Amino acid sequence: MKPFLKDYLTFSKKERIGAVYLMAIIVILFIAAYGLEYYYANFQEKKDYAALDFEIEEFIRKKKLLNDSLAGMQHKTLTVENKPAVPKYFYFDPNKATAQEWEQLGLKPKLVKTIINYTAKGGKFYKNEDVKKMYGMDEETYNALAPYIRIKPKSENHIKVSAKPEYQWEKKEEKLQIIEINAADLYELTKIKGIGESFASSIIKYRNLLGGFLYKEQLLEIYNLSPEKLAEIESQVDINPLLIKKININKCTIEELVSHPYLKWSTANSIVKIREQHGFYNHTREIQQSDLVNEELYRKLAPYLTIE
User: Fold this and answer.
1) Mean pLDDT, residues 92-106 taken together
2) What tens digit of pLDDT does each residue of 44-86 get?
3) Is 167 inside any structural domain?
4) Short-list 286, 283, 290, 292, CA closest to 264
5) Residues paired with 149 in a beta bridge
6) How many angstroms from the chain centroid is the CA of residue 137?
7) Cβ of 281: how many Cβ atoms within 10 Å?
8) Distance, CA of 284 to CA of 244 (rounded, Å)
9) In this structure, what is the dihedral angle of CA atoms 33, 37, 38, 42, given to the nearest 10 degrees?
10) How far apart are CA 117 and CA 123, in angstroms?
C-alpha cells in the first residue's frame, strides 16, 4: 500500500519545480486580477465624482450669470418706471386745461381724472383757491401751481336776453339756498335742489362716520351719489372745515379708529399697537411707522386726527 501511495504522492525534482512555478503564476494572476479590479473601480469612482463636481460648478456659474442678468434688467426697468416726471410749468386756465396739460404740470393721473370729471360735469373754478379744494390736491402741489393759474373772469356784459313777453319778467325765480353740510340736519339738507330725504340721510350717515367733509368731492364717496349729482348740487353747498370732528390717536380704541371709512381693521390695530409699544404719538405723522399707512392714506387721514 505504501509503495502505491508513494508512487502517486511523490514528485520528482522537475515536477516540484514545475509545481512551484505553477503556484507562483496562479498567485500572480490572482493578485493582478484583484489589483486591476480595485484600480478600475477607484478610477471610475473618481472619474464619476469629478464629472459630477464639474457639472455642479457649471450649473452654479450659469445660474449666477442668469440672476445677475435678471437683476440688471429689473434695476433698469425700475429706474425707468420710478423716475418721476419733471413738471413743466406754464400759465393755464384750470377751466380749460386738458388732461395732458395737467399731467405736464406734474399732477398724478388720479388727480387729473378727478379734475377732468369735475369740469366735464359743469364744475367751475372761480378763483385760484378753488383748485386747492380739489380732492387729492396737496399743499405742496398747489403752491407750485398757484403762480401760473390764470382764471378768466366772468364777463359782466354777458347777459342773456329773453325772447319771452315782457310780463314774464315779473315772475320771481326761486332763489337757491346755500347749505353748510357739516352742520345741516335732515330738513336743511332737503332744501338743496336735487337732494331728497334718501340722499340727505346718506349724507348725514357718512358725515358722522367721516367726522365731517373737507371737500365737496368727498360727497362722491357716498354710495350712489354720482358726479352728475355733485355737479347739480355743488353750487348750493358750503363746507366749514372747522366743524370737523377729530380722533385722538393717543386715546382712541381700535373700534373707534376702524369706524372711520378710510381705515381697515388691520391698519387701526397697527396704529394702536405702535402706541402701546412705544408710547404716545408726538405728531400725527408718526402713524406712518406702520407699514400699512402710506403717504396717500396719511394725507387723507391727517385732517381727522389729533394727538390731544
Assistant:
1) 88
2) 555 555 666 777 877 888 777 777 777 766 655 545 444 446 7
3) no
4) 292
5) 92
6) 19
7) 19
8) 16
9) 150
10) 9
Is 206 a domain residue? yes
DSSP lists the bridge partners of residue 97 as none
Are the C-beta atoms of residues 260 and 249 closer than 8 Å to each other? no
Domain endpoint, select from 148, 168, 189: 148
Cell numbers linked to 278:
412705544
Indicate the pTM of the whole model: 0.45
* Amino acid sitting at position 70: L
Distance CA 154, CA 130 (A): 15
Is residue 9 in a domain?
Answer: yes
Q: Name the phi and psi angles at 238, rounded to 5.
A: -135, 155
Q: Residue 153 domain-assigned?
A: no
Residue in the block written with cell 369740469: 119
Query: How many domains does the chain divide into?
Result: 4
Query: How many CB atoms are located within 10 Å of the residue 245 CB?
Result: 12
The DSSP letter of residue 85 is P
How many CA atoms lie within 13 Å of 232's alpha carbon, on the beta-carbon side?
10
Residue 151 phi, psi dihedral angles, 5° rounding: -95, 125
The boundaries of the domain holding residue 48 are 2-82
* CA-closest candidate to residue 201, choices 176, 226, 235, 224: 224
Coil vs helix vs strand at 238? strand
Joined together, the cell numbers standing for residue 305 give 386726527
Q: Are 224 and 250 in contact (CB under 8 A)?
A: no
